[in-house]
Specification:
This protein has one domain (about 1-185): Jelly Rolls (Sandwich), CATH 2.60.120. It has helices spanning about 30-35, 165, and strands spanning about 1-5, 10-15, 20, 25, 45-55, 55-65, 70-75, 80-85, 95-100, 110, 115-120, 125-130, 140-145, 160. About 5% of the residues lie in helices and about 40% in strands. Strands 1-2-10-7-12-5 form a six-stranded antiparallel beta sheet, with no helix packed on it. Strands 6, 8, 9, 11, 13 and 14 form a six-stranded mixed beta sheet that branches. Strands 3-4 form a two-stranded antiparallel sheet.
Length: about 190
């Protein structure tokens, strides 16, 4: 597999080896020993999959007391995936990384704990899969507004379908007292 770091070094882009011929293809989506060799030496405890239609934008989500690292990929379709560093004291605090993930490029993105995460769907529909380092805790879920001007994410497109819940997310600078827990995750 090919590994590349992003503008925020802890966010890692993985291009797995794909073995294919006229019949189809095969690839490994997780191999703990191989991923540990490239710095992703993690125990995943939960796998999730969502399906969304074109223009759906989900995020930017994070958990404070049970922060989740995520290994994300797309099994069908195409998305633009985003991670935002929200670790206080990090030299990349407030910086974002975006990567197109699709069923044709087979890329994965590792988003460590301490990052807000979201994606928008670029194809007619997309199946988005992710492995998590901690369990989802709905009482611990928070969000940052997807179009926070201080973060300045360059989402592809402009006509997004965003849930009512996500439209009520706060701006990063309004998170103040919620974020100090991430200082220790540096």
């Amino acid at each position: 597999m090919k590994i590349s770091t992003s503008a925020v070094p802890e966010v890692i882009v993985i291009a797995p080896d794909v073995y294919g011929d006229e019949r189809g293809y095969f690839l490994e989506t997780w191999h703990s020993a191989r991923y540990a060799e490239v710095g992703i030496d993690i125990k995943f405890v939960q796998d999730n999959r969502s399906r969304s239609q074109r223009g759906v934008l989900r995020g930017l989500h994070y958990q404070l007391n049970q922060p989740q690292g995520k290994l994300v990929s797309v099994s069908r379709g195409r998305v633009f995936d985003v991670a935002v560093d929200i670790r206080l004291g990090s030299p990349w605090f407030g910086h974002w990384v975006g990567e197109e993930l699709s069923d044709s490029n087979h890329k994965q993105l590792y988003v460590p704990p301490g990052f807000a995460h979201g994606f928008c769907v670029l194809s007619d529909s997309a199946d988005f899969t992710y492995k998590c380092t901690d369990y989802y805790a709905p009482e611990d879920e928070y969000g940052i507004l997807w179009n926070d001007p201080d973060i300045g994410i360059q989402w592809p497109g402009s006509d997004f379908q965003v849930s009512q819940k996500d439209t009520r997310n706060k701006l990063l600078h309004q998170m103040g007292d919620l974020l100090p827990v991430y200082k220790s995750l540096r």
